[in-house]
Amino acid sequence: MFDIKVLPIDSTKRTNNGSFLQTPFWCNFKSRHGWTYRRFLLELAYKGGEEAQTLTEEVAVLNRSFAGGRFSIAYIPLFPKLPFDVNDVSSQDQTIEFANLLHDIAFALKPELPKNTIAIRFDPDVDFEDFYEMAACNKGMKIVSFADKLGLKKNHVDIQPPDTTLVDLTATEEEILARMHSKWRYNIRLAEKKGVVVKRYLGNSLNLSQKIDRFYELTKETNARDGNSSHAKEYYLDLIKASASELESGADVPVISLYIAEHEGEEIAAIMTLFSRDEAIYLYGASSNHKRNLMPNHLLQWTAMKDAKAYGSPYYDMYGMPPDGENENHPMHGLYMFKANFGGRIIHRIGSWDIPLKNIYNLYSTAEKLRAFWYKKVIKKLKGR
Questions:
Q1: For residue range 34-48, what is the model confidence (pLDDT) as tens digits?
Q2: What confidence tens digit (pLDDT) does each residue in 337-356 have?
Q3: Long-range contacts: 131-138, Cβ < 8 Å, 24+?
Q4: Residues 236, 255, 249: CA angle, nearest 5 degrees
Q5: Is the Cα torsion angle 288, 289, 291, 292 positive or negative in sign?
Q6: CA 370 to chain CA mean position, Å
Q7: E strands of 249-303, at which residues?
Q8: Is the pLDDT score of 69 beyond 90?
Q9: What whole-number distance in Å separates Cα of residue 347 and Cα of residue 162?
């Protein structure tokens, strides 16, 4: 359905646009933490219909090796979008086209990838405001893949968070606050009234190492409370320092910031954010078990939103939430309500899809599923969560 030409490229002018996951800054950062990557220019000629259509897209493809380099997985985050305007064709035709597009991109890229690549994993930039429309799209993709023998596999584990909420920053600050739940506006004012102060640190701040140390301590405290895991301390330090270093050299790259909430000299909560021309992202967060009644997390998010708006980011992505958490009995009800009540637009992405290239993929996929079950279900249950 698509005739695709692949041209390797060494550079791009899109250094601070589109999804941050596709920027050279992020890819270079990941290459220092276990990944490799290459960038390609794809020329996509659509062969369906009476009139031929051609699209040109840039894409970054990351690759990670496992088992001592015996095999690897290629990973393409937040790419591609739906090939054509959803209003031009029916949803059924879009699903057929998109399933074929993933298949055709994968096999066009295959000759450019390491020979030990067992699968190409996509996290497509396709989202729906209605959860059931997203589910219907995924079901349709599975049907098309089976009928057309495309080999597409819905991954059991989504790499990027498929469900999130986007706070519109193009409105005035008063309008953004008005869209929040009234209790969230109250909590922001409460934190300020009680003396919570939020300070921002960049990668060239003089006391950065000390602040990253505190952020990491808060991260460990949060993990112990919630049963999650996190990166090594050096990962966070490298990320924020790399951003500042490139900005100082004159490069146009995303801005990484560390925000820490203090109360009477005690640092009680922190977040890390990314601002780019097209989005602002709440990357990581952590908080102490103490003074949570002062609502520092609400003030942290609001401070970051105001800074992202001043920077020029059009929206603030809370970057991950349960698909449904309004039910008070839901195990992640609190997280859902915290993020949803900032008044953003909730979206549901279709998640991770794989194109297997070697038979060993089936074994790898099973092991990946068992690992996720062990950490997300068994370990958390053993810890009483």
A1: 999 999 999 988 766
A2: 999 999 999 999 999 999 99
A3: 131/163, 131/323, 131/324, 131/348, 134/162, 134/348, 134/349, 134/350, 136/91, 137/91, 137/95, 137/350, 138/350, 138/351
A4: 100
A5: positive
A6: 23
A7: 255-263, 266-275, 280-287
A8: no
A9: 8
Per-residue pLDDT tens for 298-335? Answer: 999 999 999 999 999 999 999 999 888 767 777 778 88
> Which residue type occupies 108?
A
Q: Where are the beta strands (DSSP E) in 178-279?
A: 197-201, 255-263, 266-275
| Spatial contact of 213 and 234, defined as CB atoms under 8 Å apart | no
Cβ 342 vs Cβ 171: under 8 Å? no
Write down how long the chain is. Answer: 385
229-276 confidence digits (pLDDT tens): 889 999 999 999 999 999 999 999 999 999 999 999 999 999 999 999
Cα distance between residue 321 and residue 189, in whole Å: 24
List % helix, strand, coil for the chain (3-state, nearest 5).
40, 25, 35
Give the integer Cα–Cα distance in Å for 62 and 60: 6
At residue 369, the pLDDT reads: 83
Cβ pair 281, 137 in contact under 8 A? no
Q: Please report the beta strands in the chain, taking only residues with DSSP state E, as ranges in sequence order.
A: 2-9, 36-46, 53-66, 71-77, 117-123, 127-128, 153-154, 163-168, 197-201, 255-263, 266-275, 280-287, 315-317, 345-349, 353-356
